[in-house]
């Protein structure tokens, strides 16, 4: 365990940065910390061993020394359980920013990865998507890898927990993955948990809380659609203009949403299991 594991946000920031703290405010599961002198930072704690190492590796991988990519917060300091980052400037969604984000996301995906399931450089195999464990194990073909390392582990957990009662439609999708996955593409550099809550709007879009790995670029786009995103169609249109998507990509959205829906089923139960089954049936 890290030396600062049991400290408060104030004490952890003081220890990690060697700076005095003037104020600490809650910030949606993290903390906004004002340092003496007025500089502000964000402090985030994760109790799971290795989770912050995975996040730091992901943030660094998603902030390449390449123009035209989305912004991510800079990492200022971290240990096993505390991460201190720069603050994202406040802003509001706009049509122009959405179009810029679509182009930037296409640029980021195009930087690529070594394989489906590959971890960011320095990132652990045992990573996380939000509060859920996620293994980054490299594969060869995206479809087969997606079934083995994303869909089936959480389908089994959901059935074992009794929160999903009709696995047959999802199992049928897994059995037909070769026909459903679409054309082969080079592995993309994915954010991996690109729901709207991890998209922050300023003068441009910033991305936070990655579950970064190599994968299919349609996965990030499907995540944007899962819980809604401001100006989504403008994002998608600008993306498609920059890096044209393969025919049938809209019909594959449900396929790429199976994994996050199953994760939500395991974590929260409720109607997510039924939604996952309905998504699978739509692919029949």
TrEMBL record:
InterPro entries: Fructo-/Ketosamine-3-kinase (IPR016477), Kinase-like_dom_sf (IPR011009). Transmembrane segments: none annotated. GO terms for molecular function: kinase activity. Keywords: Kinase, Transferase. Belongs to the fructosamine kinase family. This is Fructosamine-3-kinase. It comes from Actinophytocola oryzae.
């Amino acid at each position: 365990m890290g030396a600062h594991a049991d400290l408060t946000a104030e004490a952890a920031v003081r220890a990690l940065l060697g700076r005095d703290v003037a104020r600490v405010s809650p910030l949606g599961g993290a903390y906004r910390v004002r340092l003496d002198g007025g500089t502000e930072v964000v402090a985030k704690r994760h109790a799971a061993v290795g989770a912050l190492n995975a996040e730091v590796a992901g943030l660094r991988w998603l902030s390449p020394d390449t123009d035209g990519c989305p912004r991510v917060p800079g990492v200022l300091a971290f240990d096993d359980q505390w991460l201190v980052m720069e603050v994202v400037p406040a802003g509001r969604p706009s049509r122009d920013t959405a179009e810029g984000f679509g182009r930037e996301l296409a640029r980021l995906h195009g930087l690529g990865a070594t394989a489906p399931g590959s971890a960011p450089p320095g990132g652990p195999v045992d990573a996380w998507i939000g509060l859920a464990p996620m293994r980054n194990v490299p594969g060869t073909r995206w479809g087969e890898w997606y079934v083995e390392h994303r869909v089936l582990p959480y389908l089994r957990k959901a059935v074992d927990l009794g929160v999903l009662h009709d696995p047959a439609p999802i199992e049928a999708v897994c059995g037909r993955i070769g026909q459903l996955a679409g054309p082969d593409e080079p592995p993309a550099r994915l954010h991996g948990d690109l729901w709207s809550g991890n998209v922050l709007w300023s003068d441009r879009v910033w991305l936070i809380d990655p579950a970064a790995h190599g994968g299919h670029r349609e996965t990030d786009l499907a995540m944007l659609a899962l819980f809604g995103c401001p100006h989504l169609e403008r994002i998608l249109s600008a993306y498609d203009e920059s890096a044209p998507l393969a025919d049938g990509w809209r019909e594959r959205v449900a396929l790429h949403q199976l994994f996050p829906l199953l994760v939500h089923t395991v974590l929260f139960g409720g109607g997510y299991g039924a939604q996952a089954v309905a998504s699978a049936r739509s692919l029949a």
